[in-house]
Write a structure and sequence with these properties.
Elements: E1 2-3, H1 10-44, H2 47-53, H3 59-80, E2 83-92, E3 97-104, H4 118-131, E4 137-143, E5 147-153, H5 156-164, H6 178-191, E6 199-206, H7 215-225, E7 227-233, E8 240-241, E9 243-245, E10 251-254, E11 264-265, H8 269-281, E12 286-288, H9 296-309, E13 314-321, H10 324-339, H11 349-355, H12 363-372
Parallel strand pairs: 3-4, 3-6, 6-7, 7-12
Antiparallel strand pairs: 1-2, 2-13, 4-5, 8-11, 9-10
Helix pairs in contact: 1-3, 3-10, 4-5, 4-9, 6-7, 7-8
């Protein structure tokens, strides 16, 4: 059994205490009245002598009526608490999970501090993540200076293939426009009619800070809509040279600036703080690549656990309100209390005649009995 109200909250505790004080106070008043009646009897005279003058002792009936009143008040307050009893179980269907993977395709993702390269390793681990989340729906955003999106679908293999066939050289605009990419992911959710009823997660995989917009602002809009952003930060503060990769996928050297010096990529302190703020704003998780790992597998395990524990099909116990039973019992006790008189019913003329040994009852006495009836 449980109650409809939370008896751990202060307002409910105060109301319950007031109700119990009312029951105890009412019972105390009845007891004090009984003591007052006894004191009045003692003031009238000696108890044994006064008891001989009484034709009927109503003390037991008054006690019974008092008990019935207190019990009826108690059951009325129990009904007010709206008790609930178990009424079977019901099956809660599984909640679907929608994941939009936002993958950075800037040229810096060709860096090889993670073998065989950041982008190759990221694409392989994204494909594994998709395989490890059967039943989830996926969307894709590949971005550099501009995002390219693939709508949400239950065909996870199509999303993996979409990422697999792209390379940083295929991006029409260079750069790292993280804010635009996150906005594109938001639009994928808003255009899909099913997503509003699903759990929505954006997985951002990038090695750099946003160079053109404000991803934190977009994250705040996602948080308002109930969308979580998990961030996988690839690369660190140490400078890494950027290979120059041909259209055929062969390394032909290293990218250089106008002075002929090798171009390097490293994450600034501001960029690292920005990515952490994006995840924190939406209640998401940030994972930093280390020891040659991208960290995507950490997010994969987290999403798997969510699907198994939080979003899986559940059996829930159903409780039904049964306040009518204590309320009905309170009314029944009130009716019973009202039907009990403090004095005995007057005997009829026939009964009085029989008790006195007379066998004859006059017509006047019969008429009087009928009138009283």
């Amino acid at each position: 059994m449980r109650f409809a109200y939370d008896f751990t909250s202060l307002p409910v505790i105060l109301v319950a205490a007031a109700c119990m004080a009312g029951v105890v106070g009412f019972a105390a008043v009845l007891i004090l009245q009984s003591f007052a009646r006894t004191r009045a009897l003692l003031r009238f005279g000696e108890v044994k002598l006064v008891s001989r003058l009484e034709s009927w002792d109503a003390g037991s009936r008054r006690s019974l009526k008092g008990v019935l009143l207190v019990l009826s008040l108690l059951f009325a307050f129990v009904a007010l608490a709206r008790p609930q009893f178990r009424n079977g179980t019901r099956l809660i269907p599984a909640t679907n999970l929608d994941v939009v993977i936002v993958l950075d395709y800037s040229k810096s993702m060709y860096a090889r501090d993670i073998a065989p390269s950041r982008i190759a390793r990221a694409k392989a681990e994204v494909a594994r993540l998709i395989r490890e989340l059967p039943g989830a729906r996926f969307g894709a955003v590949a971005f550099a200076g501009e995002p390219m999106a693939f709508p949400l679908t239950s065909d996870g293999a199509a999303i993996a293939q979409y990422f697999r066939q792209l390379d940083p050289n295929d991006m029409p605009v260079g750069g790292t426009a993280t804010a635009r990419a996150l906005e594109a992911a938001r639009e994928l959710f808003s255009r899909d009619p099913k997503s509003k009823d699903h759990v929505r997660v954006i997985l951002l995989v990038t090695d750099g800070e946003d160079l053109e917009g404000d991803p934190v602002q977009v994250a705040q809009e996602c948080a308002t809509e109930g969308t979580r952003i998990d961030v996988v930060q690839i690369g660190g503060r140490a400078p890494e040279v950027i290979p120059d990769v041909s259209a055929e996928g062969r390394v032909t050297g290293f990218r250089q600036d106008d002075q002929g010096k090798p171009l390097t990529t490293e994450l600034s302190a501001e960029g690292e703080a920005q990515l952490a703020k994006v995840a924190e704003t939406t209640g998401g998780e940030i994972v930093r690549a280390q020891k040659g790992e991208t960290g995507i597998d950490v997010i994969s395990h987290s999403l798997q656990k969510m699907m198994k524990e939080e979003l899986s099909e559940k059996v829930e116990t159903v409780f039904a309100e049964q306040y009518a039973w204590p309320l009905g019992l309170a009314l029944l006790l009130l009716i019973l209390e009202a039907s009990i008189g403090e004095s005995p019913r007057r005997a009829s003329a026939r009964t009085r005649a029989l008790e006195s040994g007379l066998g004859h009852v006059s017509d006047k006495e019969k008429e009087a009995d009928r009138a009283r009836a």
